[in-house]
Design a protein that fits this description.
Blueprint (H helix, E strand, L loop, with lengths): L7 E5 L3 H12 L3 E4 L3 E6 L2 E6 L18 E5 L4 H10 L6 E8 L2 E9 L5 E7 L2
Parallel strand pairs: 1-4, 5-8
Antiparallel strand pairs: 2-3, 3-4, 6-7, 7-8
Protein name: Glyoxalase
Pfam families: Glyoxalase (PF00903)
Organism: Levilactobacillus zymae
Length: about 130
């Protein structure tokens, strides 16, 4: 099998509209609609889909849980701009900036949480 990319991830959230709005506003990700009204956000060539535990999109993980995700996204802005932007949106920085090793090499990361407490690493590659 020749697998080389991720198409999308699905986050289980408590309020889809709140999550769509937060990811759109804080990360400036375009909102997408698909499959008769489902909503998500576009992230580069991928997307983030949202579902609620009480009405998941089938098939679903065995234990869809709000706030259980931990993932990294990549920003291209200068680190100072990233920190300023997060402050302007009142997004608390949980940790960082820290040196990390990403999939493409050394990067500097800061960690934040979305409204459902999912942990998001925002990485800025050093090259």
């Amino acid at each position: 099998m020749n697998i080389r990319d991720i198409d999308h991830i699905t986050l289980t959230v408590s309020d889809i509209e709140r999550s769509v709005r937060w990811y759109h506003e804080v990360f400036d990700l375009p909102i997408v609609e698909f499959d008769d009204g489902r909503r998500g956000v576009k992230l580069g060539k991928q997307k983030i889909n949202f579902q609620v535990a009480s009405d998941p999109h089938l098939p679903v993980a065995k234990h869809p849980t709000v706030g259980a995700a931990d993932f990294a996204i990549i920003a291209t802005d200068p680190l100072a701009n990233i920190l300023s932007h997060l402050t302007n949106y009142a997004v608390e920085i949980i940790d960082g900036p820290l040196p990390k090793m990403g999939a493409q090499g050394p990067m500097t990361s800061v960690y934040v949480r979305d409204p459902d407490e999912n942990l998001i690493e925002i990485g800025k590659y050093d090259h």
